[in-house]
Design a protein that fits this description.
The chain is an all-alpha fold and about 150 residues long. It has 6 helices and no strands.
């Protein structure tokens, strides 16, 4: 039980690191995300104002993101560790994880893009960027579980 909790918490840290690197403004995926948020249409002064306006809510936003990342991490830790403990090979456990990503994450991200406020000319790129961000995070957590279980 303690191992699971520690692995979930380390998975949250991995998720934060991947998300930070993935959405940095100077990366292609980060520039796409900034465009999705409408920052490309704002002057530097307006961008600064928007950032300042968001600062008071950032602790709650990051706390919510940590909780969501913990749920993802818990699912990955559970799927991979239970698979390995029951004699399933790591590649097959990754297959289970990939099926969960395809069946749950991809549709959820797709629905967000379809019904959200995403510009049509960036919709597919945003869809693939967000979907693969989650896949990379899940795979890194899975490798960590494999190494420590």
């Amino acid at each position: 039980m303690i191992t699971t909790i520690v692995l979930v918490l380390v998975g949250v840290v991995l998720s934060v690191v991947v998300g930070t690197l993935w959405y940095m403004p100077n990366t292609p995926t980060g520039r796409l995300h900034m465009r999705y948020l409408g920052f490309d249409k704002l002057s530097p002064e307006e961008q600064k104002q928007k950032i300042e306006a968001a600062k008071p809510t950032m602790p709650k936003t990051y706390a919510a993101q940590m909780l969501l990342s913990a749920l993802t991490s818990l699912a990955v830790v559970f799927i991979v560790s239970m698979s390995l403990k029951n004699g399933v090979t790591f590649p097959v456990a990754l297959g289970f994880l990939l099926m969960n990503w395809v069946c749950f994450v991809v549709p959820a991200v797709g629905m967000q893009i379809l019904w959200g406020n995403c510009e049509r000319d960036i919709a597919w790129r945003k869809f693939f960027s967000d979907s693969f961000n989650i896949l990379v995070t899940m795979l890194l957590i899975a490798v960590m579980v494999y190494l420590f279980v």
